[in-house]
Sequence to fold (225 residues):
Amino acid sequence: KNEVEQSPQNLTAQEGEFITINCSYSVGISALHWLQQHPGGGIVSLFMLSSGKKKHGRLIATINIQEKHSSLHITASHPRDSAVYICAVLMDSNYQLIWGAGTKLIIKP
Amino acid sequence: GAVVSQHPSRVICKSGTSVKIECRSLDFQATTMFWYRQFPKQSLMLMATSNEGSKATYEQGVEKDKFLINHASLTLSTLTVTSAHPEDSSFYICSALGPLSSYEQYFGPGTRLTVT
Fold:
């Protein structure tokens, strides 16, 4: 079993839909990152969370430390949101990141 | 916020040549930087941890003589792929520990290496 599990692996939705991507982990962490990877490969850091909830524009990220679970939400999704979204956790024993496999999101117009 | 840049963003080289990739923290000092590699359709894999002024710590299975890492200053780490082969073609990403806390890690945009 992977230490970081993301679901779904692939997600296709229509423009305007509310999107949720989930991340569960089994290790003790200091923080959790959500990143976006564009088709060309470039990575953009979206959020870093250690507790609670963060919002940036149409993106919302939440984390429940007790349940070892985080979600990334996209409201009013748009085709330009199409990308791979990656969850990565920072282990509390060192600075290393453990990466999820990513969720490929396609938003159709 | 803190910004990390990588150069070049894309590079094509011939087999047998060496390629250097730079990772810079633009507005903060980074004593620790990380180098990751991503194979197509796979997750990122940590290659090594780079600490300013000391030798890099390589992950198991990563050839230190092939992937030379130098962290000579607090704002620059370099990864040199020596005697490149087509199987080295990959996406390489660096990140830097941020200036405020040990939890913050800032990612470079990545470098696409193609070896022909």
